[in-house]
Design a protein that fits this description.
Ribbon-helix-helix protein, CopG family, mainly alpha, 63% helix
Length: 93
């Protein structure tokens, strides 16, 4: 039995291409089409909220330096690898 989703739900109608709906049904399994679409839409809303946050931060503080992002990402990978007892891949980006 499916686990109920928290929060109120409302019935709506959406139009999808037949191929899209078939692919969703093939992947959704016991989860169900509605739950699959709900989760996909929630992920998209989160992405859009993050994009808006980044745009606001860059408007206030200027664009992010890609080299700085790469350096910090490497430091994070190295930290996690050290805590797993591994070495970070040299070419990880």
């Amino acid at each position: 039995m499916d686990t109920p989703r928290p929060g109120k739900t409302r019935v709506t109608s959406v139009s999808l291409r037949a191929e899209t709906l078939e692919a969703i049904r093939a992947r959704a399994g016991k989860q169900g089409v509605s739950s699959y679409i709900e989760e996909a839409v929630q992920r998209q809303l989160q992405r859009e909220a993050i994009d808006e946050y980044i745009a606001a931060a860059e408007a206030e503080h200027g664009p992010v330096d890609p080299a700085e992002v790469s350096d910090k990402a490497e430091r994070i990978r190295a930290h996690h690898a050290a805590h797993r007892g591994e070495s970070a891949p040299a070419d990880a980006a």
